[in-house]
Amino acid sequence: MTKKEVLNKLLALNGKLVSGESLASELGVSRMAISKAVNSLKDDGYPIIVKERKGYMLSSFDLFKKDVVLSEMTSVIKTYFYESLRGSSNNEAKAIAASHKDPFLVVTAMQEGGKGRLGRSFSSPLGGLYFSLYLPSDMLADGDLITTNAALACALAIEEVSGHDVQIKWVNDIYMGGKKLVGILTEGIVDLELGGLSGAIIGIGINVNTDLSDYPDELKGTITSLKIEAGREIDRVKLLKNAVEKVIEFQKKDYLDEYRKRCFVLGKSLTVNKMGRKFEAKAVDIDDRARLIVEYEDGKREALSSAEVTLHKE
Question: Given 64, 137, 177, 205, which residue has the most CB atoms within 10 angstroms?
């Protein structure tokens, strides 16, 4: 128990130095017990600095470890943590949802098979934040609004934790500094007996404490991370908790007006890619079903629900 108590004390100090004598006195144990607990935590990978005759301190705020994550998230939602996944957090959530009907969260520090929209892969190196939230149908917004509400919730959580503004690209990408920061993939779970949606998995990948060198060359000109934009590491556990709480909360209302304000494609010229065919258009509005209203060169308008759009400057 001393090991966990020492970790909690160090976490509460937010990187400040504390003496072994002080820890021993507070926890009612010997200095030797404190030393053993610290050494054990270091063996587990915690970045603890030991200063001779002065004490101990954590050298990083970004302690994305299983016991820290579960300690923070247990009061919010049932959470499954993985150091890494060979597939994706969405796939893992699907497997769990087959026998688990209550809300839950799958979170991982790295995934080899990250999934994006339209069958694309999502690069997911160490340092990022990748999670999938399963919510049953009675906790979801109207089907058309699940992803837009989640995108807005995630955007606000990022702003609160990082102090930097973000924008949303219809329908599910979050940008910072003109480059992609977040991808969201929502997948419905169908109840074959009832013939309707029994729940949904909202998968979110955030580039947090990563560098451009962590990504394939073809992505380096189009993506960014919170670390790059903010110039510092971000506490992923704090961001995770904030984002999950907001995504759950935001499923309860219609946030389209706020979503529209942050959607930077409106009023812009773009290329619409539908089933491999490309058309030039202008983004006019987002309707009440979260569809993007575009106007083509011939003056005709269409409400898009799933097409890919690319701004001309991209």
Answer: 205
**Token representation of residue 267:** 């009023």
With beta carbons less than 8 A apart as the criterion, state whether 93 and 203 touch: yes
Can you tell me the mean pLDDT for 148-172? 95
CA distance 140 to 253: 9
Task: Give the list of residues 6+ apart from residue 112 with CB closer than 8 angstroms, or none.
Answer: 84, 85, 86, 87, 124
In sequence order, what are the residues at sequence separation of 6 or more whose Cβ sits closer than 8 angstroms to the Cβ of residue 68? Answer: 7, 11, 237
Three-state DSSP state, 267: coil
Q: How far is CA 109 from CA 112, 120, 128, 249, in A?
A: 10, 20, 7, 24
CB atoms within 10 A of CB 176: 24
pTM: 0.81
What is the rounded end-to-end Cα distance, in angstroms, of the chain? 54
Residues 6+ apart with CB under 8 A from 234: 62, 161, 162, 208, 209, 226, 227
Are the C-beta atoms of 132 and 201 separated by less than 8 Å?
A: yes
Check if the beta carbon of residue 2 is closer than 8 Å to that of residue 27. Answer: yes
The pLDDT of residue 122 is above 70 = no
What's the CA gap between 50 and 74, in Å, rounded?
30
How do beta strands 173-176 and 167-169 pair?
antiparallel
Question: Does pLDDT of 137 surpass 80?
Answer: yes
